[in-house]
Design goal:
Strand content of chain A: 5-15%
Number of strands of chain B: 10
Structural class of chain A: alpha/beta
Helix content of chain B: 25-40%
Shape of chain A: globular
CATH topology of the largest domain in chain A: 2-enoyl-CoA Hydratase, Chain A, domain 1
Radius of gyration of chain B: 22 Å
Oligomer: heterodimer
Radius of gyration of chain A: 27 Å
CATH superfamily of the largest domain in chain A: 2-enoyl-CoA Hydratase, Chain A, domain 1
Number of helices of chain B: 14
Largest sheet of chain B: 10 strands, mixed
CATH superfamily of one domain in chain B: Thiolase/Chalcone synthase
Helix content of chain A: 40-55%
Number of domains of chain A: 3
Largest interface: A-B, 17 and 17 residues
Number of helices of chain A: 27
Order of helices and strands of chain B: EEHEHEHEHHHHHEHEHEHHHHEE
Amino acid sequence: MPGTLLNLKHWRLEIDDENIAWAILDQAGESANTFGIETTTELGQIVSAVEDAARRNEARALIFLSGKENSFVAGADIREFDNLTREKDIEDAIRQVTAMFDRIEAMPIPVIVGIHGFCLGGGLEFAMACHYRIATRDDATRLGLPEVKLGLIPGFNGTVRWIELSGPLAAMPNMLTGKMLRPTAARAIGLVDQLVPGKLELRWACRKAALQRRKSKGAAWWKRLLSYPPFRGILASRMRQETAKKVREEHYPAPFKLIELFERFGGDRRRMAMAEMRYFTPLMVSETSRNLRRVFRLSEMLKNEAPKGGPKPQRAHVIGAGTMGGDIAAWCVISGMEVSLQDVSQDAVEKALGRAKSLFKKRLRGNLEVNTAMARLHADVKGNHIARADVVIEAIVEKLDIKQKVLSATESKMKPGALLATNTSSLPIEQIAEGLADPGRLIGVHFFNPVPQMPLVEVVRGPDSREDVVRQGCSFVTAIGKFPLITKSTAGFLVNRVLGPYMFAAMERVEEGQPKEKIDAAAAKFGMPMGPIELADTVGLDICAHVAEVLGKPAPEDSQLARLVASGKFGKKTGSGFYNWVNGKPEKEKAEYDEAELDRLGQDLIKPLIDECEKCLAEGVVADADHVDAGVIFGTGFAPFRGGPLHYRKSQEQETKPASAPHAAATATAAAE
Amino acid sequence: MMGQLRRVAVIGGIRTPFCRSNTAFAELSNLDLMTAALNGLVEKCHLEGELIDEVVGGAVVTHSKDFNLTREAVIATELDRRTPGVTLSQACGTSLQAALGSAAKIATGQIDCAIATGSDTTSDAPIVVQKKLAQRLVRLSQAKSFSEKARIFMKGFSPSELAPVAPNVAEPRTGLSMGQHTELMAQRFHISRDAQDQLAYESHRKAAKAYDEGFFDDLIVPTAGVFRDNNLRTDIDRTKMSTLKPAFEKSERGTLTAANSTPLTDGASAVLLASEEWADQHGLRPLAYLTHGQHAAIDFVNGEGLLMAPTIAVSRMLDKAGLTLQDFDFYEIHEAFAAQVLATLQAWESPDYCREVLGKDHPLGSIDRDKLNVKGSSIAVGHPFAATGGRILATLAKILAENGGGRGLISICTAGGMGVAAILEGASPAQHAVH
């Protein structure tokens, strides 16, 4: 019988005149759909209702669509899992969902799913349980299982189904890296069966597929064959090698667990599905995953610093075509903005344009995109474009009087409401603002080198900076795909300030004769992306010396740092510093160190950093402890699986007090001890 | 219905950047471009979910699948999906003609608001099969048995049938390209190479200046990562222009070059027109009023200059408006070719031409060249055929608004020996009576 069935909060289920059942997910009160207890419970009701209707011959097909503008299902609602600390509760929750997905798969009538927008994690696992998948070619559409990024593996039998659809050779690497695929890439590996141009065509393509009873064919036989010996073992060891190049198993066990799952059970649908849960659950309660989920929440927290809605900035004007200015300009162009770049000489600008072009070639697809990007980047020696810019960023030499002069000359040409920001790393915003007619309009936007790789930008609030301007700064930072961290205008802001004591203490150890290789190895073992000495060389020793001055602790004249700087050995960029650099890699002496000793040294190395974090918190450099952690993770790469420096210290302290250890799983951290 | 005519307000217009063919928009279709322009207009004038009485426009170089181009574009926009779309074409005059038709309906009260639009891309040109092959394929599809199919397929087949037919922009009756026709006009009116180069040079200079001043910032919606017209030469070199070889008449008599002609261009435009009441109700301020429109055609088959029809359209329109050619503060004469503009101006100055072709006792006279195409025109920004009318309407309306009023003349030549003209009156302060 045509009409609406059931009365649901998040879903709409109706059977139309052709006896096609349409189930539309439009989660109440959310901008994106997720699978939580409420949405999946209702999905269970839908499955039952349609099963009944199919039995009575009143439904000939079931079609799933999203009612959201640009989102299919963004994943399982992780927040709900945070409340489940007992493995058994998690398993019960999972079993309900996987059993329902199995029923969808076993439905006697065709089950078609139309995908537009993000289809991730649990959303994709659901889509894979349907019989036929149609996606839009729209740029908003992305498919993937990013669970490993949260320290997990897929838990709703996504591992089994994706391997069946694409074969392990295509499915496994995508799960291991958590990659989000564009529609054409998803089509190419059989993850979706059909593409349509856009949302308008989606429901009609689904109808046609339903009437024609289309069914996904799955991976070709020779692709499936790779799930069986001897190929399975070869593939697994190869994937393990590749994964180990990127992460350490002790820090990030999830991808290794996924490989093990495939190696032991690949090709056996029933056993692998059951084993998936046994592998999934311990990861879900592990400290690593909790911390990685915390990092995800911290990134969301930073993004939310920007006010919602409002026009996106379209045009930026960057003054200063040095490394920093040029890279900021190029990055803004990559983010889709039109950018004018100003410097005193055409030569300086031309050089920056050349660097920008090589960045575009690396980051963009094809000549068309590179040429289009180059056309968005204008050399503007005279500053003709200042009046058109929505954002003006100053990135010139760190000299107060010059900055003041340039900024006041710029301010008078700017249009009202445009953002004015300085990329200073060492001068107080309020002093730079002194020459302005409206000192309240200046903020700092402190980028990190290399701009394309570093996700954090410090948005510096001077004592006079207006709140709306600070928020406008955050909007700009999120518009170019970075995380804004609001900091006070104090020496070194947050990131350089906490890095300073950490790096200088490590350098002192080198002065004392400890091998720099050992220091770097200990920090890497702790989970830092690279050790402090290698980091100093990478950042540039001249910059390090400058930061030391800014922080009020200049390097002593007889220190190794001072000597190296004096002799023009700035590290990676000059080919030698603490290390000799060959082909962009430091030459390190091979040596074996005692693991326990490295662990102890790692703790000692990181202590000054955490101490400084506590001081920053006490002084209110950023809003709260979460902001300290977020800033240090995204600004320095501080071991994400440890959840941030302050969070780490807190969990360490809790651990040493055995009476107050509510999380039995917190012991997982002890692996590093 | 036939009471007092209402004034027709130009609320605003926008366009995609214009890109030389097979460059930045190589992967976009007319539908993509027109949709981008319409969505740009929606955003600019806050028309989300708005039901517009009609969207009218089209494209010159189209695929047969685009038979309903304008309506298809409307469906893909943020407008109310119940907005009707009319696809029409008058070659390069398409979007201006669309505006004139809708303006007449607004004036009489038949509708309250409309969008005129136009799009063109020669990057996504319709390449078709030869007639012989097409007929063979049709017969093939009707054949019942395999042997019948085989017979149809083989009979008289020659591989040359498989060569695709690319579209060309030549006049079907004469087989001459636009450039060749214009070269003939340049010869007849003795338009020198130097004068053409100078006009083209000034077009680039004026457009570049307007860019730097941000004049185009709210007239262009960034599309596919492109923010500005890529034909524009900010560093144009006047001496280098004069070294270029003629493009159409290759002998030393030739005067038209790549630099003083428009290139093939991709892009789209859209302009919102409305009654004053509608604008008021929607909190929108008219930039200008569209007061007169006129089109005309010329018998080029018997030897008249192909692109001279605007001289007739303008002359007739002036008569009806009771104005002289000199009664304008701004002139927007579409630069299909510099020679076309110069021949038009010369014709109006010529007593013979005005008497013989326009039937006038006195010549229309000359215009103040400082008022001509003050923000540059098609030679600088490019010319996606059907989009140009919308570009000029939006540009002139903004010029008048910034000027605080005044009167502007639009003249556009089209293929097929036609011309479309219009008059815009500034919205303030002085108001001229509507006829």
